[in-house]
Design brief:
- By secondary structure, this protein is of the alpha+beta class.
- It has two domains: 114 residues, Homing Intron 3 (I-Ppo) Encoded Endonuclease, Chain A; 47 residues.
- Helix content is 25%, strand content 33%.
- It has five helices and 14 strands.
- It is elongated, with a radius of gyration of 21 Å.
- The two termini are 33 Å apart.
């Protein structure tokens, strides 16, 4: 279901307080506060960049966040979701906003898209515990060969065993393109 709101905050209200900053870079959230009737508020915030960088304590993941007060209640929202909503006029229920270049601080409209959770997982960077240096390729000690295994929709797809790591990498790249399409990421 496509919703013209975010966390219950109507699009109409969001459009009355924020606009997309088309000149934004990764050093800014991509949003600008609009002027309001309160002159004191305008002096401090109107026409200035909105949001702040939030760093997750557990994994260090960084992203732009914004505090929006609606009907006296504070809401903490990711700026990328607000930008997607402002640009497209909707957010689909149970979908996520993905950063194509995997840079969570780059909220340019060309870099964000709506995805399912599984599609978003396909577009992840290589994990830190990866020992082969390539997604979907790992060394099987028992067999003494490189294995190619790609995941899609919570299913594992095996593409064989290889003596040569480079052959395994080529197969993994081709398999990822076939299974993941535009959401596939090799590095």
């Amino acid at each position: 279901m496509k919703l013209p709101s975010i966390q219950g905050i109507p699009l109409k209200y969001i459009r009355s307080i924020l606009k997309i900053d088309s000149t934004s870079s990764t050093s800014r959230s991509g949003l600008i506060w609009l002027p309001r009737e309160n002159l004191r508020w305008n002096t401090r915030f109107a026409n200035k960049s909105a949001g702040y960088i939030h760093t997750h304590a557990k994994d260090g993941y960084r992203r732009w966040m914004i505090n929006i007060t609606y009907n006296g209640k504070p809401y903490f929202v990711t700026c990328s979701r607000v930008i997607f909503l402002l640009h497209n006029g909707y957010l689909t229920e149970c979908k996520q906003v993905d950063h194509k270049d995997v840079n969570s601080l780059n909220n340019s409209i060309d870099n964000i898209r709506e995805t399912t959770h599984d599609q978003n997982q396909r577009n992840r960077k290589i994990q830190k515990n990866n020992t082969s240096g390539h997604k979907g390729v790992y060394w099987n000690k028992r067999v003494g060969k490189w294995v190619v295994r790609i995941y899609k929709d919570n299913k594992s797809y095996s593409f064989g065993y290889f003596d040569n790591k480079e052959d395994a990498i080529k197969v993994a790249i081709a398999a990822r393109k076939k299974l993941h399409g535009e959401f596939g990421r090799d590095e």
